[in-house]
Amino acid sequence: MTAIGLAPRWARRLTYWGLNLLTYAVVALMVAPVLWLVASSFQSDSRLANGTYDFLDPTFGAFREMWSTVDFEHYFMNSIVICSIAALLATAFASSAGYALARFRFRGADTFGLAVIGTQLIPGSMFLLPIFLGFVWLKQNTAFALYDTRLGMILVYTAFFTPVAIFLMRAFFAAIPRELEEAALVDGCTRFGAFVRVVLPNAAPGIVATYVYAFLFAWDELLFAANLTQERAETIPIGIRTFIGNYQQEYAQLMAAGVISTIPVMVAFFLTQRWLVRGLTAGAVKG
Amino acid sequence: MSESVVTEGLPVPASSRRTRLLRSWRRNRFAYALIAPAVVFMVLVHLIPTAAGIYVAFLDLNLFTFALLFHAPRVGLQNFQDLLFDAENPIRSGFTGAVENTIFYTVVTVGVTLVLGIAIAQLLNRNFPGQRLARTLMLAPWVVPSFVVAVLWQFMWQSDSGIINKVLVDYTHILDDKPVWLLGENTMWAIIIPTIWRGLPFVVLIFLAGLQTIPKELYEAAAIDGAGAWRRFRHITLPLMKPLIAIQLLFGVIWSVYQFAVPYVMFGVNPPPDADLLMTLIVRQSFTNQLFGYGAAISVMLMLVMFAWVVVWYRIFRRDLVTA
User: Fold this and answer.
1) Considering only CA atoms, which of A198, A203, A200 is closest in space to residue A187?
2) Out of A19, A191, A220, closest to residue B145 by CB
3) Residues A103-108: what's their mean pLDDT?
């Protein structure tokens, strides 16, 4: 992007370093709040409330206390179980549906594709009440407990994040050469065999990217968790809300809880960063 | 795929509609099996509950009629009429306020995110020392869950002890007095800025990937022809990035309009009137005040507006998407 040979050399160097400084400043501004989150979680509540920080004197107090102030472990385990299983199911369903959309022209394919997009346009508040009522009805009339259970949240989240996952997976499958499956079919594989043994392994980076993406979304979900759980299946966002509601001034613990809630996402992100970034951008750039 | 194309090309023998359907079913059995799980979940969790939700919008379902559920009195368009036209109805003022807030919030967050997104992607697309590290660090806010974003910023917005006022007033003296961020008009900015902060990295990521696909020769040729930086951006970068911008615009608007977590975590179910978005309003009216009919009616209107937005969007960008 640098101008070629027109401006004098010193002017070019000045622009170059000016833009570099601007870039560093932008990155610093974006990272600063994250650093602030981490730094303040190592302070005491009273210091944060007074605004008298001392970052050379960190304390782990907040990380110790937060587990007993609210039962954070309970929320944390619920989130881990619900989100990892829901993301797994969503990725599995999306892999097969995305493959169908990428490879087969079948009656109803367009309708299905439109319906998948359509689900993204429905406000959650629209179907929250009926789902809530359905769950309560099941609880009262059958042995099938979904209200305030991990199973209920898993089923709801699976449905939520399948549509976006379908689009990601479709882009991945579309990028895999058709010849691979054709060769497998010639070699005597069934279609399903070709899908499982040839296509899926080739789509592995895409599957990982989709899984992490679904996991991130599920981890973030708040509206349904707030209304479909009560005391057994509450997830982290609910725990954080409880924290703010009852212990407003204990900022160090709140920040520590924030750090703990971010760690699983960050680990997932950094372990899979290469595939995730490539996966998301491949899908997006190809449209 | 190849099979279905071949059979579709052949003249269809005079057979009844039924056998044709049966044949299409056989041919596509595998595809149907593949989409079946997704379809089942979408029908159970999206389709049926949404249909039920739309039905509730035409009921007088509130605290007193809740026991009747779907047998609550049917009131036709009454809920919609109250919300849109009945100046006497106390819910209406909250509704119009939330509509204005949501429009402002959406226009600002999406607009700023797209403009900054392109600018930052351009900055990161150059060769400079620390390029790799800068690109990774840029993604940091995206890893922070949005409920943590809300908690963190609520803490930073504190007017006396919060770091933002400390920086703006105590350290740099940009401002003379510490503004109150979590009360009054500023509350809108208190939710807008964290939203932009968290949304930017993803947009930058996508735009950066897009920029990298543009051949360098295009810029070089244009520079030789005497095109300045702005004209190269205007006539090469923007047109080639248009499909990506269009997609981000589409989803940016949808996600902003349906924003719930940030105001809810920052302010609870009862945000100050200047930060009350449609989603917080709907959830409050439905689940706190138990005015389910009104809540559903607002949801229905919101959904119709979003469908309209997609149609408008599609008409504007149809041509660009084909070339993508």
Assistant:
1) A198
2) A220
3) 88
Please tell me which residue of chain B has the smallest CA distance to A227: B287
User: Are the C-beta atoms of residues A273 and A113 closer than 8 Å to each other?
Assistant: no
Q: Which residue of A has its CA nearest to B130?
A: A24
pLDDT digits (tens, 9 = 90+) for B66-92: 777 778 888 888 889 888 888 888 788
Q: What gap in Å lies between CA A215 and CA A236, rounded to an integer? A: 14
Q: What is the mean pLDDT of chain A?
A: 88
Give B123: exposed, middle or buried? Use CB within 10 Å, 0-12, 13-18, 19+: buried
In order of A77, A143, A177, A179, the CA distances from A182 in angstroms are 44, 47, 9, 5
Backbone angles phi, psi at B311, to 5 degrees: -65, -45
For residue A20, the number of C-alpha atoms closer than 13 Å in the C-beta half-sphere is 12
Task: Report residue A5's pLDDT band, with 50, 70 and 90 as the boundaries.
Answer: low
The total of other beta-carbon atoms located within 10 Å of residue B204's CB is 27
Span B256-269, mean pLDDT? 93
Q: How far apart are CA A249 and CA A46, in angstroms?
A: 8
- What integer pLDDT is reported at residue B6 of this predicted model? 44
Q: Do A229 and A238 contact (CB within 8 A), yes or no?
A: yes
Q: Which residue of B has its CA nearest to A35?
A: B140
With tokens 């993406």, the residue in question is: A213
Q: Rounded to 5 degrees, what are φ and ψ at B59?
A: -110, 155
What pLDDT shows up at residue B322? 59
- Report, as an integer, the average pLDDT of B232-240: 91
| Closest by Cα among B167, B168, B170, B150 to B277 | B150
Instruction: Encode pLDDT of A10-63 as tens digits.
Output: 888 999 999 999 999 999 999 999 999 999 999 888 888 777 778 888 888 889
Cα B214 to Cα B46, B217, B231, B249: the distances in Å are 39, 9, 16, 21
**Whether complex ipTM tops 0.85:** yes
Q: How far apart are CA B32 and CA B34, in angstroms?
A: 5
* Residue A146 Cα to chain centre, angstroms: 23
- Residue B144: phi and psi, rounded to 5, are -80, 120
The answer to whether residue A272 scores a pLDDT higher than 90 is: no
Say how far apart CA A274 and CA B174 lie, in whole Å: 41
Helix (H, G, I), strand (E, B) or coil at A24: helix
State whether A222 and B260 contact (CB < 8 Å).
yes
The helix/strand/coil state of A243 is helix
Contact map slice: A 200-219 vs B, CB within 8 A:
216, 219
Which chain B residues have a beta carbon less than 8 Å from that of A51?
Answer: 160-162, 166
Of A89, A63, A82, A161, nearest to A120 (Cα)? A161
A237 pLDDT higher than 90: yes
